[in-house]
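RECORD TYPE: inverse folding
INPUT: structure tokens
STRUCTURE:
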């Protein structure tokens, strides 16, 4: 086997190419691997390994949760790699190529000034024919040749090819299967020996199906097909002065070649290239016209299949998000706990389907109640996963909240071990004793709660440490304050105070406190509803940029 190169494309768009001179390469989420990708949640800690055994390269899945795929099929046993193979795991794509850095089936585009001049001069040689879809669709009458007996036979043949193409392409084939079917139909329609179908993705042509190998297409032909939206026929490449000296033409004994755009009504999404070594069957203008129309039908079918796949993926994604939102909703309190001497209520609304905010209540036999509010950095699914992990740890640690400083310090160490380097969590916990009015609390980088005194100004609970997962060995502190009967404690996430109006002015702590001040006779739920109504009015019922969490506790 020739030496292999390995190209690794990660989910964040980065690409790395390695010469496979090593004996072993392991990949996974953990840093114990030779290549680690800690933020790729689709990978297991130790996912797969590449091994050099004798003259061969083997890929093995290491019992990963989501599995490894080779060329689209799930890997169930060690697999011997070859040039052109594609291995996917999580969001990683591994491409194996020959030592010159390209897959064996790759199409090479070469530059040739003679061809460029030939195609742009407007007077190509007699061996070259150019047409386009617009020109063909504008034709209203059958040519005189087609009125002859032989022309009628050829026309019937072409019609049969189009009818067959219509039948083959009308079904619900997967997009990857569709490419091969289109190429086979094209080859059969014009009796070609070899061909390749390429899709245009991010301004690059990617091989989607091929019959044969070693294709070398000039950049002039490529650009003419893609940019000018024109079809090109070279009847005899051995005689055409622009092509006859090409190594690929000589090596594969190419006589005739056709290149047509995969064109919908208004855009080109790829091209089909066919060639043939036969001197007895060179392609004709009628072949070019037929293939141009077939490529138009095929392009519309491909475009439709893409839309179907996108819609299917979006439906699955929406369903998964809805299920995730339902699961996450069950992690939050279903209602407010009954606490003698205290009136409490909580509310959470993610700005997306799922979010990273968390709140909770914990009641204890001695009558005390603990309240927690946290905010995971970021939004959406990654934040919600970290929120779920945090909730599980808090549930365990909050069983015995006698020392909040120790609890938060311990929580920080546990979070640091499992939280990605670019993520952190702000966290606040307090314990209220309604009988005595004592409130103990500890804060890890969260917004200081507001304390609305029934007789006095609005206060902020001072004392703050860094967010969780920032400093592994930080020792958090516990503070205490007395709450009188009628005083109100307001815990909130920054989604509340940073909610912006049409002038991009934030809601702010002062406005939050002013809305609730002098409302001490109202219950906690009524006060919470009042804040939500004020936020809706402030933002003109527009979407929020961040998750909202609000907890209100009143000593009664």
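DESIGNED SEQUENCE:
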């Amino acid at each position: 086997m020739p030496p292999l190169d390995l190209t690794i494309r990660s989910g964040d768009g980065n690409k790395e190419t390695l010469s496979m001179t090593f004996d072993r390469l392991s990949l996974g989420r953990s840093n114990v691997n030779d290549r680690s990708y800690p933020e790729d949640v689709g990978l297991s800690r130790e996912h797969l390994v590449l091994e050099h055994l004798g003259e061969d390269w083997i890929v093995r899945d290491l019992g990963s949760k989501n599995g490894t795929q080779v060329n689209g099929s799930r890997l169930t046993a060690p697999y011997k790699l070859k040039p052109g193979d594609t291995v996917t795991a999580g969001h990683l794509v591994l491409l194996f190529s020959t030592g010159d850095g390209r897959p064996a089936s790759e199409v090479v585009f070469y530059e040739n000034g003679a061809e460029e001049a030939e195609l742009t001069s407007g007077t190509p040689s007699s061996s070259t024919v150019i047409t386009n879809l617009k020109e063909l669709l504008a034709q209203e009458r059958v040519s005189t040749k087609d009125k002859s007996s032989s022309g009628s036979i050829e026309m019937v043949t072409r019609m049969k090819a189009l009818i067959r193409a219509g039948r083959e392409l009308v079904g619900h084939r997967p997009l990857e299967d569709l490419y091969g079917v289109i190429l086979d139909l094209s080859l059969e329609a014009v009796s070609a020996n070899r061909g390749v179908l390429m899709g245009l993705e991010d301004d690059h042509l990617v091989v989607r199906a091929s019959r044969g190998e070693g294709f070398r297409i000039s950049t002039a032909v490529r650009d003419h097909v893609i940019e000018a939206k024109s079809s090109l026929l070279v009847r005899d490449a051995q005689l055409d002065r622009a092509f006859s000296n090409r190594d690929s033409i000589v090596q594969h004994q190419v006589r005739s070649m056709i290149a047509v755009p995969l064109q919908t009504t208004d855009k080109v999404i790829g091209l089909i290239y066919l060639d043939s070594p036969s001197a007895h069957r060179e392609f004709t203008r009628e072949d070019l016209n037929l293939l141009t129309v077939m490529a138009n039908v095929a392009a519309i079918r491909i475009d439709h299949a893409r839309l179907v796949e996108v819609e299917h993926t979006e439906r699955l994604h929406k369903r998964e998000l809805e299920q995730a939102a339902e699961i996450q909703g069950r992690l939050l309190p279903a209602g407010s706990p009954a606490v003698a001497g205290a009136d409490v209520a909580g509310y959470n609304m993610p700005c997306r389907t799922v979010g990273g905010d968390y709140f909770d209540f914990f009641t204890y036999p001695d009558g005390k109640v603990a309240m927690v509010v946290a905010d995971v950095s970021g939004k959406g699914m990654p934040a919600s996963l970290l929120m779920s992990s945090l909730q599980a740890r808090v549930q365990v640690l909050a069983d015995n909240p006698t020392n909040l400083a120790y609890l938060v310090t311990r929580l920080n160490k546990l979070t640091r071990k499992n939280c990605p380097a670019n993520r952190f969590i702000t966290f606040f916990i307090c314990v209220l004793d309604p009988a005595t009015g004592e409130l103990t609390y500890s804060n890890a980088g969260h917004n200081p709660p507001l304390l609305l005194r029934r007789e006095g100004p609005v206060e902020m609970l001072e004392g703050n440490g860094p967010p969780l997962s920032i400093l592994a060995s930080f020792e958090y502190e516990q503070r205490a304050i007395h709450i009188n009967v009628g005083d109100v404690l307001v815990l909130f996430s920054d989604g509340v105070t940073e909610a912006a109006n049409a002038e991009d002015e934030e809601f702010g702590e002062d406005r939050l406190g002013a809305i609730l001040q002098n409302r001490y006779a109202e219950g906690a739920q009524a006060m919470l509803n009042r804040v939500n109504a004020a936020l809706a009015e402030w933002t003109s019922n527009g979407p929020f940029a961040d998750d909202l969490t609000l907890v209100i506790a009143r000593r009664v």
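NOTES: The longest strand covers residues 268-276.
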